[in-house]
Each structure stands twice: as structure tokens, then as C-alpha cells.
Amino acid sequence: MQITKDIETLIDLAISEDYISGDPTTKSLINSSDSGSAIIVSDQEGVLAGIDVALFVFSKFSSITSTKVLLSDGDNLKKGSQIARIEGSLSSILSAERTALNFLQLCSGVATETSKYVEAIHGTKSKIVDTRKTIPGFRRLQKYSVQVGGGYNHRHNLSDGILIKDNHITAFGGSIANTIKAAKKNAAHTLKIEIEVETLEHVQEALDAKADIIMLDNMSTNMMTEAVKLCKGQAVTEASGGITLSTVREIAETGVDIISIGAITHSAPNLDISLDITSL
């Protein structure tokens, strides 16, 4: 992953949060001139993501002499898989450890959770996509990790497209057709228009108004199947709302094009990854 300025700023913020006035634990136990090496190890199965970010954290400590990637983002991890090696000042390795692992565990957790949903719908036409339900400041990392896990990105931010939800419709007067027509009139012609609906009647109203994408929100699979039939050849369909690993396959089998899942970012558990000192 390319470390852009915004990612470096996030890393600097994380380091400053953890290293406010030094590391008295390490300072009281380790001589600043002592050197050694450490290995980053996976303690459970999953999908690796964020290794470049983690190693960049170590590189921020000037006494880290070298880092070596042993596995790359997207690689499958087993318990005991060796991910990377770090060499240099022991005190620097120990001080950077937690911050580096925080990034690596979060990114790998998102990639792993995404991969489970992707595997669950294998063989269907549907795609797993994320949402904007991300940790503030971490959106780019989380959405990158979704891609590593085999998923796709929805909007990165509000400017990426028009997504009309129930509150927009209510605020504009309650008419789906009028809301879509206003969006088409007032927005740039390059932007696709997506609208959230909950009934088959609303699906037809959105189709009549020429919506590009129709979000089928919290529909039963029977209703969703009918909605997909209505939309065929006229609009892209997206399933959304409370979708879980146990229900995603049934939803994909309705023929829906896209399945958006907030849980792959906002509820993905961190992957268990650790660092072990290997030589002094």
C-alpha cells in the first residue's frame, strides 16, 4: 500500500498519542545502544492487510535499521505465520510495537471479515461492497482492506455520488419521483443517482423516474427477488440493511447486483497478531 500524506499524518498522530513523553518502561530496562531483531507473527487464521503501514510505523523510529516483508497484503495467514522481520534498536522496536500492531490488526481484521462474506456468496453474480460506516480518519485504510479481502468500495465520501435516502425524500416533500427529478436537474450529469426504497411500489416509482441504482433496504428475500426482476435491464440493484454472514448467501441468490455491508468495517474484529523478540 502506498503511504500517502494522509496516511503518514494518521501514523504520526497515532505515534504521538502513544509516545507523548517517551517510554519509561523500555527506558528503565533497555540500554539505548542494545540492538536485536523481532518477528511479527499471526496468532490466528485470516487475511493479511496493512503490512506496509505497520512497517512504516517502525521506520518512524530512526534507530530501526531494517525491515523485511515475509508475507504481502492479501496473503492467507495461518496460526504461526511469520509476517515480517524488524532489526535495529531494541528500545525502538519495543516502543513502536503497539502502534504498529494496532494498524496491522485492524486492517487484517477488516480484510478477513470481508473475505468471509466474499466466500459465502462465491458462484453468484453479487458483489460485496462496504459503506461509509468507518472509523474517523481510518476510512482509506479500511476501504483498502476491504479490497484486499476481495470486496469492493461504495462511496469514499459524499461527493462520490448521489444517494437519496428516506430522510432526503422526507425533507424534499415525500415524493420519490420528484426527489429523483430534482437531483437530475440540479446535480452534475456525470453523477449516478441511487435511491433507497423499501417496497415494490417504491421500486417501480424509482424506475419510472429513471434512477440509476436502486437500494433495496431491509426487504425480505421474496420481495427482493421480485424487485430484482422489476429492475432487470433498467437499474443496478443493491441490497442493504442488517445483512449478516448467515443471511448473505440467500440474499445473493435473489440476483441482486450489489450487497452493501457496514459490518465489514464497523464491526470487524481485529486479527490477533503479535511481535516476538527473536535475538539480542
Number of discrete domains = 2
CATH architecture of the largest domain: Alpha-Beta Barrel
Q: How far apart are the first and last residues' alpha carbons, in Å?
A: 30 Å
| Structural category | alpha/beta
Secondary-structure element series: HHEEHEEEHEHEHHEHEHEHEHE
The portion of residues assigned to helices is 40-55%
For the CA atoms, what is the radius of gyration? 23 Å
CATH superfamily of the largest domain: Aldolase class I
* Biggest β-sheet strands, sense, barrel: 6 strands, parallel
Overall geometric form: elongated
Return the CATH class of the largest domain. Alpha Beta
Strand order of the largest sheet: 6-11-10-9-8-7
Count of individual helical segments = 11
CATH topology of the largest domain: the name is: TIM Barrel
Explain this structure.
The chain has about 280 residues and is α/β, with parallel strands linked by helices. It has 2 domains: about 5-115 and about 270-280, Quinolinate phosphoribosyl transferase, N-terminal domain (Aldehyde Oxidoreductase, domain 3, Alpha-Beta Complex); about 120-265, Aldolase class I (TIM Barrel, Alpha-Beta Barrel). It is about 40% helix and about 20% strand. It contains 11 helices and 12 strands. The protein has helices at about 5-20, 25-30, 50-60, 90-120, 140-150, 165-170, 175-185, 200-210, 220-230, 250, 265, and strands at about 35-40, 45, 65-70, 75, 80-90, 125-130, 160-165, 195, 215, 235-240, 260, 275-280. Strands 6-11-10-9-8-7 form a 6-stranded parallel sheet. A 4-stranded antiparallel sheet has the order 3-5-1-12, with helices on one face. Helix 3 (about 50-60) packs antiparallel against helix 4 and helix 8 (about 200-210) runs parallel beside helix 9 (about 220-230). It is elongated, with a radius of gyration of 23 Å.
